[in-house]
Design goal:
This protein has 5 helices and no strands. The chain is mainly alpha-helical. α2 packs antiparallel against α3. The protein is elongated. The two termini are 36 Å apart. 12% of the residues are buried.
């Protein structure tokens, strides 16, 4: 289950700087291109919009997986009381269980976003097929 998230993390990690600006530019380009193509063909505009929306979702998932799998720095406190709490077995078991839950949640959300992006590519064709 972790093959795709790790693959996306490897592919998107070199481009992980200024993510918000990149996603904003991608959304802006999709909306602008879709708006321009509306005057040519409504169906072509819908195909570009939903395909662009799917690409934005895939890019979001890629950047999120790169952020999720990046190496986090270790925290070493100087306070002896805090150091005792962080070294206790109860704290370690609690952090292990929380990290397992967050990992499972991330993998589920990752695959749901990918599934929705695949459906988003098919939306204009399904609308044309069912006549709405």
């Amino acid at each position: 289950m972790e093959f795709l998230p790790r693959l996306f993390a490897n592919k998107f990690s070199p481009y992980n700087s200024h993510v918000f600006l990149k996603l904003f530019a991608l959304v802006f380009a999709v909306v602008l291109l879709s708006g321009v193509l509306t005057s040519v063909s409504q169906f072509l505009s819908e195909v570009v919009f939903f395909t662009g929306f799917a690409i934005v979702l895939i890019a979001m998932v890629g950047f999120a997986s790169a952020k999720h799998y990046e190496e986090k720095p270790k925290y070493m406190p100087t306070n002896p009381i805090l150091l005792r709490v962080l070294a206790s077995p109860i704290f370690n078991s609690l952090t292990n269980s929380i990290s397992a839950l967050s990992k499972a949640f991330f993998i589920i959300v990752f695959h749901l976003f990918l599934l929705f992006s695949m459906f988003a590519i098919l939306f204009p064709f399904l609308g044309r097929w069912y006549g709405s």
